[in-house]
Amino acid sequence: MASRQRLAVVVITKNEERQIARCLESTRWADELIIVDDESGDRTAEIARGYGARVITHRSDGNFDRQRNLGIGAATAEWVLQMDADEVIPAALRQEIDRVLASGAGSAESPVAYRIRRRNCFLGRFMRYGGWSTEGVKLFRRNRARYVGRSVHETLQVDGATGALTVEIEHYPFTSLEQVVGRTNQYTTVEARLLAEEQPRLPCRTIAYQMTWRPVKLFWKSYVRKAGWRDGMHGLVFALWGAWSHMLRWAKYWEITRATSYELRATSGQRSVSQLAARSSQPESRVSSLGSRVGGSS
After folding, report:
1. How far apart, in Å, are the Cα atoms of 120 and each of 88, 232, 280?
2. How many domains does the chain have?
3. Largest Cα–Cα distance of the chain, in whole Å?
4. How far apart are CA 247 and CA 125, in angstroms?
5. Are 171 and 120 in contact (CB under 8 A)?
6. 34 within a domain of the structure (yes/no)
7. Helices H, strands E: what count in the chain?
8. pLDDT of 281
9. Interatomic CA distance for residues 1 and 5, integer angstroms
10. I need a surface site. Which of 6, 117, 182, 283 has the fewest CB within 10 A?
């Protein structure tokens, strides 16, 4: 059997002192620990260094793809495992990853990246219903994948075949409603700005639909069609959160584009007034000039 290849764990952080230790404790078996920190104002970096992690401080400006690529660029191991500070590697997943690393280079058809499903914990409960089932490519060969997006929802481009691991990664995104509100406010602002850059002049009827009927449909899908009600009050709060976050994103889009449209109208109005003033002053100038010539000839 080929010797085990090396693994670098890359974690992007922002004020994660409450949970970064749990994340790093579950990954300290990796060959490299790399933290790309978004100028945290708490003890995140200090705690990470205590686990032997290399900390790279870089402001994200909402571009998480760039943050993750910085971590990839700093790694030297053959494989990279991208993580968030609110994720934990259970023992069974570690064993599965170790089997991938022990397989060596493999054949030409062997996967160069692997999808990993998330087991999502919402306010202290692992959710089974409601449609919150996420999967993404998180484990990959360092020289065969790069992030190509520019938002809070990263886009990984893989050069080669992709496989799937069977054990889930544990995900603890929220421990309180305060966290839910704070992070949703942060993410929806970034998403609204990107949407405004890409589609700055959507009609009002589209915005109104996205702020009213679309959230209703999202709630119905999560709570009824995806049986979120079976998760009890957690399922109800989760479905309401999904609907509210969608509405908030579009309300912020409306706010941004309305302000932009107002500035454009104001600029256009000022330009029109200036042009009108310039036109109205031209005849007066010509009359004055003519009067001067007539006066001089008399």
Report:
1. 11, 16, 68
2. 2
3. 113
4. 25
5. yes
6. yes
7. 8, 12
8. 53
9. 12
10. 283
Does residue 293 lie within any of the structural domains?
Answer: no
Question: pLDDT tens digit string along 236-280?
Answer: 999 999 999 999 999 999 999 987 665 555 555 555 545 555 555
**Mean pLDDT in residue range 63-77:** 94
What gap in Å lies between CA 116 and CA 166, rounded to an integer? Answer: 7
Which residues span the domain enclosing 135? 7-174
Question: 281-298, pLDDT tens digit by residue?
Answer: 554 444 344 344 434 443
What are the tokens at 266? 């104001």
Kindly state the tokens that stand for 52. 């032997």
Question: Same structural domain for residues 140 and 40?
Answer: yes
Q: Which run of H or E residues covers position 23?
A: helix 20-25
Question: pTM of this prediction?
Answer: 0.78
Do the bridges between strand 162-164 and strand 125-126 make them parallel or antiparallel, or are there none, so unpaired? Answer: unpaired
Query: In this structure, are residues 48 and 23 in contact, taking their beta carbons and an 8 Å threshold?
Result: no
Confidence at 200, pLDDT banded by 50, 70, 90: very high
Does the pLDDT at position 38 exceed 80? Answer: yes
- The pLDDT value recorded for residue 259 is 77
| Number of neighbouring beta carbons within 10 Å of residue 2 | 10
Res 3: pLDDT:
80
Q: Is residue 103 part of a domain?
A: yes
Query: 226-243 burial, b if ≥16 CB within 10 A, otherwise e?
Result: bebeebeebbbbbbbbbb
Residues 168 and 181 in one domain: no
Map tokens 């449909």 to a residue. Answer: 217
